[in-house]
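Researcher: Going back to the complex we discussed earlier. I've cleaned up the inputs and rechecked each line, so this should be the final set. Can you rerun the prediction on the complete assembly and write out the structure?
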Amino acid sequence: MEQCAHCGDSCVDETVYHKEMSFCCNGCKTVYELLHENDLSYYYELERTPGVSPREFEHKFDFLDNPSISEKLLDFNDEQTSVVSFVIPAIHCSSCIWVLENLNKLQPAVQVSQVNFPEKTIRITFRSDRISLKDLVLLLSKIGYEPYISLEDSNKKDRVIDRSLIYKLGVAGFAFGNVMFLSFPEYFEVNEFWLDRFKPLFRWLMFAFSVPVVLYSAQDYFISAFKGLRSKILNIDVPIALGILVLFVRSTMEIVFNWGTGFFDSLTGLVFFLLVGKFFQQKTYNYLSFERDYRSYFPIAVTRLSGTSEEISEEQIEVYEIKKGDRILVRNNELIPVDGILIKGNALIDYSFVTGESEPVARKSGDKIYAGGKQQAGVLEVEVLKPVEQSYLTQLWSNEVFDKDYRSIFQSLTDSISKRFTIAVLGIAFLSTLFWLVYDPYKAFNVFTAVLIVACPCAIALAAPFTLGNLLRIFGRMKFYVKEASVIEKIAAVDTVVFDKTGTLTSGNGHHIIYEGVALTQEETEILNSTLRASNHPLSRSLYEMLKVNNIRTLDAFEEQVGKGIEASIDNQLIRVGSYSFVSEGDTSEQLPLTTANKTAVHISSNHLYKGCYVFQNHYREGLSEVFGSISEDKEVVILSGDNDGEREHLEHLLPKKTKMYFGKKPEDKLAFIKKLQSQGKKVMMVGDGLNDAGALKQSNVGIAIAENVNVFSPACDAILDAGQFEKLTDFFQLSKRGMQIIKWSFVLSLIYNIVGLGFAVSGHLAPVVAAILMPLSSISIVIFTTVATRFYGNRIFKINKP
Amino acid sequence: MSIIYVLLSISVIVALGFFIAFVVSVRKGQYDDTYTPSIRMLFEDEIVKESKKDQPIETNDKH
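Model: Rerun complete. Updated structure for the full complex:
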């Protein structure tokens, strides 16, 4: 099998040869030529087969002709120059950066283009008097970098980038460095004249540096601790906030009353390290946007038809401007954005997005069609019944599940440990204070504060973010993209796994097709194939691809009846392909339909004689039995499908006996089913494929979306799994559990540090130097330990299981 | 001996100067993307090399 020189896919259907190189399609070849002609062939030297095959985009960006829409997309615009930013999901390697930043070689009107690789965005400055926004978008699409323009972008001017964390980190780091310098002389406790003389000055300077750290850099911890206490939860931020506060108060008192230097070095260091951990955490999962709602899937604009029947004018309007009674045009492969009545055109709508049913539905003019379907055959004219906000799909999405922040109910491992930890620390602090009150009252305050300082769970707070952050990276490398760290904790706790069928267990492409009935003659097969070739129905196309008979003949007659089938004839040989009722019309024999109830089948008759049918069997993902087998060892496995139960037998044969199966479930039913499981105390993971499962995905404790193309499809879920990695699902479970173990070990490790520190504190010997050494040491060793441990387990689990 | 005051104020001013430079650079968006520049840096040379490669071809045509 040859590999395409542009995109690296294997050339399956056709191979296009050009300059001794092979391409999988004409699109790839065109891009290659375009780049080659413009001296951009370095693109192919930088990385091997870096390209992305361009997709069809005709008319797709017509809405950019509407100035009010394109105006909204621009970041900046004056008479001559415009600046625009796009999200381009196809950006994936250094070649992409290179070619996109050299756009002006292809189009001189582009002045500057700059790529932000982690965010997959490009910012283009161009001469708007020489090229329109639409042409720019078309140029990008032509070379395979089709921008992703969604409704969200159209009001992006309100979006502000939050950089507060990096400021806080900067302030803390700045203060930490300076305080370290200033406190250094006193570490050695030399009684020198000069030092003694300038001690107060040094100390007050340190105080001055620490004030912004406590008031600004550490404010998140105080806020979070306050919120936690108000809702009566002792979260990890409570002891941290307490520690910071006590550090600051005691240090200030020390310098006011001239007792000592205080712990400003430890204070600033502590906040700095905590913020570094937080920064790391934020960086790790900034790169994937998950929180997209239904609006991201809708087209940004539609074509509205207006005028009289003789003179129809087309006009591009924003989706939100659609009103009841409008007539809109829906082109092939476009999503229907609103509920409406079909006026003109043959509708063949793929509702798999909404209902999960994989076969497209045919609709005649006059029928009602619902939002969320994808038109698959030609152009439609639709009269709008309800605007976007009230359509069926929008209502499904505005289900309460999507509003409720159910995360607060979940108690993470860190929180449950910190609860006990805080109680223990306060206990020790009070007990030791009591002891010293009796024994030596002067030391009592000293000891009380020292205990709270040394017990500040900096290391515990870092253990979870670093372990889980590392796991997120390892998962990401295995093409399993997890939204946030707490999801891994939830994965480790899951005891019930619910799978959707269509698109989740079955792969989107490739059917198993079996013929049942009387064998067709050679001639009949040829006629059948010629007929199928002329048809646009997806089933015809799949069947045509499978048959692959080369002898194509010209049909004498051809008629396609929407929703029924096709009739065609050559040399008085009549053939009918389609549903049973259509095909068996006028059948004189007593031939009964074969046992294909509830199965997707295409029936054939020749000269009014029923022949048989092609049964479409879903193609299940590789490793399905193995994955189910190992998951069902310690978890409950359920299949919830929107499809009919035609596949039940087949699935029962494939999957372990314990697997429960439910068919014909609508999206609302799925949601309710998950709720029911949860009310029984189950921790449910839902594995689904898309929008139709969105409610269930969101309701479940962990919602995983399986996507063939991770960049394009990311509904409201907790994690996205690349479809090709389905068989590794068990490994992800395993590694999540290991992660939890690593966190527990780090807790033990940091407890040891705390006990050592407490030894100093309780006995009243906590010198500033000891605190300044102990606290960073514990933090750094925890970071190193978690990094090494996660790497080790990551490598082991994924290496052993590699074929 | 008051030199120490001078030195201290200078050191604090220098430190503050760097801090302000940091804040300004963050505000300008220099920290928004810390990855792409590291790759972009490697391109520059190659582009120069390529344009050199092109130039002789053009001049050959003219002569």
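Model: Worth noting: Chain A has six domains: 1-54, 62-158, 164-285+413-466+738-800, 299-334+339-386, 479-508+620-737, 512-617.
Researcher: Good, that matches what I expected from the previous run.
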